[in-house]
Amino acid sequence: MAHYNTILHQLLQLVPRHHFESRVRQLKGDHYVKRFKTWHQLTVLLYAFASGKNSLRDIENGLNSQLKHLYHLGLPDSIPKSTLADANSKRDYRIYEDLFYRLEERCRRISPKHKFAFKNPLISIDSTVIELSVSLFPWTRFARQRGGLKLHYGYDHSGDFPNFLSVKTPKSADNKTAIELFPVIPDSINCFDRGYMDMSWYRRIHDEKAYFVTRARRQQRGRIIERRPVTPGGNVLFDHIVEPLPASARRFPYPLRFVGYWDPQAKREFRFLTNHLYLPAQTVADIYKARWQIEAFFKWIKQNLKIKTFLGTSKNAVLTQVWIAMCYYLLLSYIRFQSRYAQSLFYLHRVIRATILERISLIDLLKLTTNRLARIRDPEPQLAFGF
C-alpha cells in the first residue's frame, strides 16, 4: 500500500499556508513565541473540532495518546493544556477571521449553483444567540444577569455555506448590524426576516444594485400604484406594486412589490416585500421559504462544532474558537465541492471524525460507504481496509 499521511495533515494542506503566515507576521502572532507557533494552534484546534474534543484536558489527552502522529503534523512532542490556553488568550483572533474570508473566497469560486432558475447570488441573513454565564464571561453581559454572543451570518445558498460572520453581544440590533457591516453583493438577492425591517437598510441594498425579499408587517401600508393579475384559486393571493408612505419614502423613495401568499402546508397567509419587480410571485415566496436552510445551519454548527462550550473565557479565546470552527466548516465544504461528494456535510464530518489521525488517502476516504467504514481496521503501522 502507498504511504499516506494523516487525514488531519491532508486537511491542513488545503489551508493557504503562505497567506496565513503573512497575516501572522502582520499581526505579530508569533512575536516572542519559541515553541508553540500560531500554525500549531490552528492544527490543534482543527483537530479538536474534527474529533469532537470538549475541553483543554480532553485535547491534551487525545494528542498524548497519538504521539506517533505529532511529528508528521509538525507539532511539538507534547502540548500541555496551559500552553494551548495561553495561545488562545493571546494570539490575535483576527488571524483566523482573515483565514475564514480567504477560505470563503475559495469555496465561492467552485461552489455549485443554487436550485433556483435565476442566476443572481442568493443570500440569507440571520443571527443566532449563544447564551453564556456572566460570571465566567463578564464581557458578554447584555442584561443585569445575562450574558451571551450574537452571531450574525450571511448564508450563501450556492453551496450552502456562510459567506459573512460578525460576532456581537445580543444587544446589537439585527438591522443596525446589517446596515453597518454586511457586505452587499451587486445583483444579489438578500433574504431576511422582519428583525431586519429598516427603510435605510432597504435603501442601502437598492443603491448597491441588489435586491431583497423579506416579510411585510401585518399592517403594511402604502399606496397601491399597480395591481398585477394572479391565477384565481392559486396560492398567490395578490401581487401589488406600492409606493411607500411619505414618512417612509424619505428613506426609501422607490416602488416596492407587495406579495400575498397562502402556504398550504402551514395553512396560513404570508406577505412579502421586495424591490425586485420582475420575479414571478411564486418565486418570491419560494425564496423566503428557502431561508429555513440558515436555521438548519445554526442547528448543525451548535450540535457539531462545539461553539456552545468554550476552551477559554477571554474575548480573544472565544472569538478564536468561533472563527476556527467556521474555518473547519469551510474546509469541509471545500472538500465536498472539489470532490463532488455525494453524501451530506454531516456524514463527511462524521467520517473525518472517525479517521482524523489515520493514515489514509482523503480521496479513498470519501469513497467509503458506511459499511466499509465500519470494517476499517488499524494495524501497525498503516490502516487496512476490509473490502
Please sum up the structure shown.
The chain has 16 helices and ten strands. The protein has helices at residues 7-12, 17-26, 38-51, 56-64, 67-70, 81-90, 94-110, 174-181, 199-207, 246-249, 281-289, 292-304, 315-339, 345-355, 362-366, 370-374, and strands spanning 122-132, 141-143, 146-156, 161-168, 189-192, 211-215, 223-228, 236-243, 256-263, 268-274.
How would you describe what is shown here?
The chain has helices at 7-12, 17-26, 38-51, 56-64, 67-70, 81-90, 94-110, 174-181, 199-207, 246-249, 281-289, 292-304, 315-339, 345-355, 362-366, 370-374, and strands at residues 122-132, 141-143, 146-156, 161-168, 189-192, 211-215, 223-228, 236-243, 256-263, 268-274. With 387 residues, the chain is α+β, with helices and mostly antiparallel strands. Helix 2 runs antiparallel to helix 7 (94-110), helix 4 (56-64) packs across helix 6 (81-90) and helix 7 runs parallel beside helix 13 (315-339). It starts with 6 loop residues before the first helix and ends in a 13-residue tail after the last helix. Strands 1, 2, 3, 4, 5, 6, 7, 8, 9 and 10 form a 10-stranded mixed sheet that branches. Helices cover 41% and strands 18% of the residues. Strand 9 (256-263) and strand 10 (268-274) form a beta hairpin. Among the domains are: 7-95 and 312-374, no CATH class; 194-290, no CATH class. The model is unreliable at 377-387 (pLDDT under 50). It is elongated and about 75 Å long.
